[in-house]
């Protein structure tokens, strides 16, 4: 009997992270979810994954800006499943459009902590057992803005570029071990977070929510938002046995935006 693998997906109670969790559960993996939300909602998501896909799922409310919470998350995942075979670093700090001069030090440091430090801590925690097992998958969710720059997003752009560098460094260190390290770089995807950004644009510019969404979409080559499932499909491939020879890749899932920008 094949032992079921376990995937830990950070920031996985909504948007891209939830789509990734569902994809990995569909592929037969147990799932550890993290994020912020009502406890009953997270329990419902876990039950749905178990019911729909015949896997086990658990939720942990770790604040990934806290090393203590990260340690507690690692301990809880190990207690429940013994090992984590697949690590998807998806969580990202809240962001708002501000210039470098407007961005506060505390906001900058929180962005670094969640977007870059947390993946480092989680890789350090789970990589040794992956190496011992001769199999592991690490996927870091970067962004189209990890490939190109944009104004008024210094913290986000900096950390998402850094996450790709971290991805490649881990890939270089684990070549031939059975462990792979890759990144996906989604373009603008209509998620609850982007809905909040559209609401902020509507408020600050005095336009309707629908017009604010159109203004956001104009940033894109195709002038449309991407689906969370597109990114989840790419992650699903990276986490499969078929991707054993694919490592160190930063794959844009952006509708061509990075190709022509």
UniProtKB/TrEMBL annotation:
Biological process per Gene Ontology, one example term: monocarboxylic acid metabolic process
Superkingdom per UniProt: Bacteria
InterPro entries on file: KR_dom (IPR057326), NAD(P)-bd_dom_sf (IPR036291), Sc_DH/Rdtase_CS (IPR020904), SDR (IPR050259), SDR_fam (IPR002347)
Residue ranges occupied by any Ketoreductase domain in the UniProt entry: 5-189
Pfam families given in the database record: adh_short
SMART domains: PKS_KR
Family membership: Belongs to the short-chain dehydrogenases/reductases (SDR) family.
The protein's name in its UniProt record: SDR family NAD(P)-dependent oxidoreductase
Organism: Oricola thermophila
């Amino acid at each position: 009997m094949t032992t079921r693998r376990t995937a830990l997906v950070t920031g996985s109670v909504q948007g891209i992270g939830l789509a990734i969790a569902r994809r990995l559960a569909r592929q037969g993996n147990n799932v550890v979810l993290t994020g912020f939300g009502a406890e009953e909602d997270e329990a419902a998501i876990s039950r749905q994954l178990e019911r729909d896909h015949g896997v086990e799922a658990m939720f942990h409310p770790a604040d990934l800006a806290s090393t203590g919470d990260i340690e507690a998350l690692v301990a809880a995942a190990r207690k429940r499943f013994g090992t984590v075979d697949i690590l998807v670093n998806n969580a990202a700090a809240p962001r708002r459009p501000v210039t470098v001069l407007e961005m506060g030090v505390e906001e900058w440091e929180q962005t670094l902590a969640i977007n870059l430090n947390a993946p480092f801590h989680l890789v350090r925690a789970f990589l040794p057992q992956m190496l011992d097992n001769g199999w592991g998958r690490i996927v870091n969710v970067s962004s189209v803005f990890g490939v190109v720059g944009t104004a008024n997003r210094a913290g986000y752009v900096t950390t998402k570029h850094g996450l790709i560098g971290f991805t490649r460094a881990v890939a270089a260190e684990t070549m031939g071990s059975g462990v792979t390290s890759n990144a996906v770089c989604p373009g603008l995807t209509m998620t609850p977070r982007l809905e909040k950004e559209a609401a902020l644009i509507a408020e600050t510019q005095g336009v309707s929510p629908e017009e604010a969404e159109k203004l956001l979409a104009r940033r894109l080559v195709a002038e449309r938002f991407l689906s969370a499932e597109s990114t989840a499909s790419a992650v699903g491939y990276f986490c499969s046995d078929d991707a054993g020879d694919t490592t160190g890749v930063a794959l844009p899932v952006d509708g061509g935006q990075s190709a022509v920008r």
